[in-house]
Amino acid sequence: MRSAATIARVRRLALAAVALALVVYLSMLAVRPSASSVLPTWLRWFGQPGSWPTMVIVVVVLIALCVFDFRSRTTHQTRNVPITVIAGLAGTAAVLGLSSYWNCHDATDPPLFTPVILTGSMFWGGMSDVQVGGRTCPDPTPIALEVARLTALGAIFTGMFGVVIAVFRSQLDRLRVSLAHTVTAVVGIDEDTRSMIGAVARTMDRHSTLVVITGGSDEPSEREAHLQRARVVSVDFNQPATLESLSLWRNLERLYLMSADPSTNLAWLDVITRRLSAVGSGRRLPLIMRIDDPWQAEGWRARYFGGSDTRWAADAVGKYETTARWLLDGIIAARTVRRVFVCGTSTLTLALCADLTRRQLEHDYYAEPGAAALPALTLVGEDANECRRDHEFHRRQIGFVPSGPIIDAAPEAPSVETLTRLIADEDAEACAAIFVDDPAHRVAGGLAPGTRLAARFPTMPVYSWDRDAQTADDRLPVVGQLRTYRPRLETPEGQAQDAWERAARLIHERYVATIGPGARQSPATLPWAQLDEFYRGSNRRQVRNALWMVEQIAVHTWNTWDSPPTPLVARDMAGRTPLEQLAQMGFDRDTALKMAQAEHEDWRRYYRRAGWKYGPARDDARRIHDKLVDWSVIEGNPELLRASVTSLATTLWSLRQLGYRSRPVWQPFTRVGTVTAEQRSEPWTWTSRAGDTMRADAGDWAVWEDGDSWSVRDGIFQATYEYVDGSQWRRRGEVLARPARPGETLDTLEGPATAADGDWVVRGADGEQWPVPGDEFAQRYAEVRPTGSG
Predict the structure, then answer these.
(1) Of the chain's two ends, which shows fewer C-beta atoms within 10 Å, N or C?
(2) Hey, is 530 helix, strand or coil?
(3) Three-state SS for 415?
(4) Span 349-364, pLDDT tens digits
(5) 555 phi and psi, to 5 degrees?
(6) Is the peptide bond before 140 cis (omega within 30 degrees of 0)?
(7) In terms of C-beta density within 10 A (0-12 exposed, 13-18 middle, 19 or more buried), how is residue 696 classed?
């Protein structure tokens, strides 16, 4: 990106130099027509009166320069038409006009003032020839004057265009959004999220349009959005229909829900999901939702990452998680810190623990050569032990492996005296301290604890919460190595904003690291920072497609909260074939081959859309690839098939190592308990607990247990119950079951049934399904714990 910007800057400067040379030459020619003699004979036509090729050349150069200037706007420039364009056109017109009228004066028309007045008249409509001393002046009309009149008109209309844009910006934004090919939408921005707009804009595809949806007039937020070339659309968030009615949803490519209230984000998500279902969008779309509480964020992420809803590939972002990442980035970058004292137990404390755990997973998966080791944490606070236990419980719920970063606890108030004693037991040069609470009061002497600690240990990095601190990454120390901060949502430039972006980057970096120094390099094997956006997109596609395949083809879920799969370590995979590795992760051979086919076809579509073609030898420069063939060709070539399955196994194993684990949606359960049952010879109806009317046929069995009754088909009853005595029957056999989605409708053998919150869906041997209330399910079914891995 930097080299492209440099090339664009050089081109713009070269074009400006050409334009300046043309203007200077035409001005000289207007003042002294004999100046054309400096040109070669074959070029002396250039600049002569009436030379339309000259006008075309000069006007094209000026237009090109204006376009370059317009497109090179930065976030520090005006949000409307750049003033430099208007000023440049006006200045060019003034120079050319003044030189053209320079000789237009006589005894009654003074030399300097007359050319100035005549030049100025062009800007308020004076475009016709003028009379000076009874004669037309200048005569003949120089090309400089013709160009001056055109540029003056250009300056006038450009300024008017800028005014129109400013007045009708809202309507123009809506028009541009309706014409956009793809849209990245950010719903809701405030003081915390304004700074994210730039980070979102930097990660977008260049063909996508950034749209910020606000709830009303918020001048600072709208200004920030427009500075990032975003389109702003206002709706009434109190009227969900205004959000749902927007035409942009059919072209949605990525969605950010940025309200500080997670419930509001969920309400928006429900509206948008309903709209997407109506317009028939079947694509899997990236979704990032703001959830500031790190536990709520991790729990929601575990539930929806990948997601049981095939509409979204979801992730969460919060200001405490982002702040924790920024703080640890700065500390780890110092490369000398081996222990960090977290002073206080707050939401940010849990975010720091979670971020260090995530870093440990990623560090174990891949660390760049020479990367600094991760520091240990010591939680200092009266309830530090409880905070650490909460974090360990959180790790178990997610299903992370037992080993992780070192997190100790010192259950004492984080006073300066306590910290001084703890630091004395370590090497102060290898320590850092983070005060995680907003200081509501000052201690004796009027100094905050962070200031006092930094004064005692001037070489130790100390971070102190300050609600007035700015969010710049290059904060300078105040006292010693004291830096102030406040919670932030802005992601540091160069870092991934979401989980699948980080996963794609790490997988690529480790793959590149395995390539030997003597191997042939290609544009696809460059480090991530140098990688072309096309290949970055291919890596992101691979991760997102893996999420989709695992759910839709393998019928797994990424939601492992409170039910993690069996842990796997590297030795469980060592020496196994790709198909055996996939089996270890819970994917049988048929499922593995279906996923490999789906991945190949999705990869092939991605390359085809980018203009790549098949060829016997790969040539990245010419967009030719030797594997752009039908799946039947891959399937019939053992070498290509093995490579395809190996790539699939590598991706899924990499995701598992990075903490993204799947498990089968349907879990095996054993039927337990006894019931009372009788076979009936006449049809009848009964009412389910959810209130649905169900129908039973003659020959079906009526079953009772604990006051509830239901019907079972005769064939199913004979296969799943065994006789005990009298009218008592015992359940037998195994079924598959999964938690129900509240409100989902199931087509049971007896008719449609609606599942309630907490219900389970049970599937029989013949594929029949029915809902069971949670309390009844716990009594009637016992989970079968598999001996293999999940």
Answers:
(1) N
(2) helix
(3) coil
(4) 999 998 999 899 899 8
(5) 55, 50
(6) yes
(7) buried
